[in-house]
Design goal:
Largest sheet: 8 strands, parallel
Helix content: 40-55%
Number of strands: 10
Distance between the termini: 15 Å
Number of helices: 9
Strand content: 15-25%
Order of helices and strands: EHEHHEHEHEHEHEHEHEE
Strand order of the largest sheet: 8-7-6-5-4-3-2-9
Shape: globular
Radius of gyration: 19 Å
């Protein structure tokens, strides 16, 4: 070793145990979308995804297409959701790499539909609705206009509906308010004739503290790596150790 004798170790055994603890808690009827954005929260997205794919993760989630393409090059074949959607011009990458973007603006829907029509291919997406995070997502006031456009789409395919819970680790009151708003949006979609198979709301804290938030899929991030910001029935252990030799 050249340089300072300091290194990080990531425990595959603990990573597997954390995934299995989440699986045991949510049950076999709920799928798991493993969040490996930002290089797997600094743990190494590629090795982490390989371990979790072998454990049965149904989906992976990343920030953008660049992160997703790296996983594809590493042999990850599971569906991948792009949290931040896609930039104009990335439609070809979405098709070629089988990536699923988040959609939270009408112009994104229009670009997917136009590309799908040009290529005669279906372009799946997950609709993100803003229920209180105030970051990304279609607001309740814009939902009617969005659904009107979606009804006219032939190639842009609604595959999932989701939201992000802003404070599930410390405010159950706000979380339940968000869940109620989400349920209202879900009902609006059903009334409009849409029935997406993937319904997901729960992050690490919510999947443990609010069973009603689990939908058809959950999105653990921090919990996979062994971190919790509040007391929950989920028992996980940190997978990373930082080590150094004593001088």
């Amino acid at each position: 070793m050249v340089g300072r004798p300091t290194w990080a170790e990531v425990s595959v055994r603990r990573l597997r145990a954390n995934f299995r603890a989440i699986r045991a808690l949510v049950g076999p009827q709920v799928e798991i979308m493993a969040v490996v954005k930002a290089d797997g929260y600094g743990h190494g997205a590629t090795p982490v995804a390989r371990v979790l794919a072998a454990e049965g993760a149904a989906w992976f989630a990343v920030t953008c297409a660049t992160e997703a393409v790296s996983l594809r090059r590493a042999g990850i074949t599971q569906p991948i959701l792009l949290f931040s959607g896609f930039w104009p011009g990335e439609e070809e990458v979405l098709e070629a790499e089988r990536l699923t973007p988040s959609v939270f603006a009408e112009e994104q829907l229009e670009r997917l539909e136009a590309y799908g029509q040009k290529r005669s291919v279906r372009m799946p997406f997950h609709l993100k609705t803003d229920t209180g995070m105030r970051r990304l997502g279609i607001s309740d006031r814009d939902m009617a206009s969005f659904l009107d456009k979606l009804r006219g789409c032939e190639y842009a395919q609604l595959e999932g509906l989701y939201t992000h819970l802003a404070s599930a680790d410390h405010s159950l009151e706000q979380t339940r308010e968000q869940l109620e708003l989400f349920q209202q949006t879900w009902r609006r979609l059903e009334q409009a004739g849409f029935d997406p198979p993937w319904i997901h709301m729960a992050n690490s804290a919510a999947l443990a503290r609010c069973p009603e938030s689990r939908g058809t899929m959950v999105r653990p991030g921090l919990a996979l790596y062994g971190y919790q910001l509040c007391e929950t029935p989920l028992r996980v252990a940190p997978v990373l150790s930082l080590k150094a030799r004593v001088v």
